[in-house]
């Protein structure tokens, strides 16, 4: 039973499209995150939610909008996709700043 | 904001050799994590270091933490090819985890 699951695993789309990535965790963790890993493998935090409340909102374009319908889910919607958005997006969860668990990643390719 | 620096960024070593990866961080970090990432895969947790002087070992890998120096190390003993991967350290502060740039380790026969 996967602890943090993301869908889709791969996403290929054209510039200008709008797409969503979904994430669900079954660990009972209170905090969920989105990270972006670029082509140089650098991992950058984008957003963090604690019990459905946004607590970290890094400097990312406002084309990126997270949504947390409940503490087990954190989705990422991206409007007007650009070439530079191509990356691997990882969802993660934690409890009390501990037990960070990462999903398998979504490889987004914008063409 | 917590900043984490790792070095080296690239490491090519021969099987059987020892080496250390260094991780410095800028401000107080609640915990220090080490992760392994294989190509095309997710991040696998290796170690969590909670307090000053903490040392943890698993197989050929040993991690340590010096909170006064704001330094963690990952020591590799007698490297084998299976250890080839990218290794990340990460610090946390109030549910905010920040990563180093990663060390891409290649172990050659």
Structure description:
The complex is a heterodimer of chains A (111) and B (109). Chain A is mainly β and 111 residues long. Chain A is 0% helix and 60% strand. Chain A contains no helices and eleven strands. In chain A, the strands form two sheets. In chain A, strands 2, 4, 5, 6, 9, 10 and 11 form a seven-stranded mixed beta sheet that branches. Chain A has a four-stranded antiparallel beta sheet with strand order 1-3-8-7, with no helix packed on it. In chain A, a hairpin with a 2-residue loop joins strand 9 and strand 10. The N and C termini of chain A lie far apart (34 Å). By secondary structure, chain B is mainly β. In chain B, 0% of the residues lie in helices and 58% in strands. Chain B has strands spanning 4-7, 10-14, 19-25, 31-37, 43-49, 55-58, 61-66, 71-76, 85-92, 97-99, 103-108. In chain B, the strands form two sheets. In chain B, strands 2, 4, 5, 9, 10 and 11 form a six-stranded mixed beta sheet that branches. The mean pLDDT of chain B is 94. At the A-B interface, strand 4, strand 5, strand 9 and strand 10 of A face strand 4, strand 5, strand 9 and strand 10 of B.
Total number of helices of chain A: 0
Order of helices and strands of chain A: EEEEEEEEEEE
The SSE string of chain B, one letter per element, is EEEEEEEEEEE
The overall average pLDDT of chain A, rounded, is 94
Tell me the helix content of chain A. Answer: under 10%
Mean pLDDT of chain B: 94
Rg of chain B to the nearest angstrom? Answer: 13 Å
Q: How many DSSP H or I helices of chain B?
A: 0
Give the strand content of chain A. Answer: over 45%
General shape of chain A = globular
- Biggest sheet architecture of chain A: 7 strands, mixed
Structural class of chain A: mainly beta
* DSSP, total strands of chain B: 11
Q: Biggest interface and which pair forms it?
A: A-B, 24 and 22 residues
Low-confidence stretches of chain A: none
């Amino acid at each position: 039973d996967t602890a943090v699951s993301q869908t889709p695993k791969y996403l290929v789309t054209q510039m200008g499209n709008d797409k969503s990535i979904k994430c669900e965790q079954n660990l009972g963790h209170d905090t969920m995150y989105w990270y972006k890993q670029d082509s140089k493998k650098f991992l950058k935090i984008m957003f963090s939610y604690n019990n459905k409340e946004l607590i970290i909102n890094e400097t990312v374009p406002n084309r990126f909008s997270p949504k947390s319908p409940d503490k087990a889910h954190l989705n990422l919607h991206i409007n007007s996709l650009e070439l530079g958005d191509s990356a691997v997006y990882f969802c993660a969860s934690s409890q009390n700043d501990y037990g960070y668990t990462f999903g398998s990643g979504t490889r987004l390719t914008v063409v | 904001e917590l900043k984490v620096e790792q070095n080296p960024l690239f490491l090519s070593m021969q099987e059987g050799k020892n080496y250390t990866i260094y991780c410095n961080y800028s401000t107080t970090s609640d915990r220090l994590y080490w992760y392994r990432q294989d190509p095309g895969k997710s991040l696998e947790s290796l170690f969590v270091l909670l307090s000053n002087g903490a040392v943890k070992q698993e197989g050929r890998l040993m991690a340590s933490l010096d909170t006064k120096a704001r330094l963690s190390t990952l020591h590799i003993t007698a490297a084998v090819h299976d250890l080839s991967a990218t290794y990340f350290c990460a610090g946390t502060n109030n549910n905010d985890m920040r990563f180093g740039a990663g060390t891409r380790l290649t172990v050659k026969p």
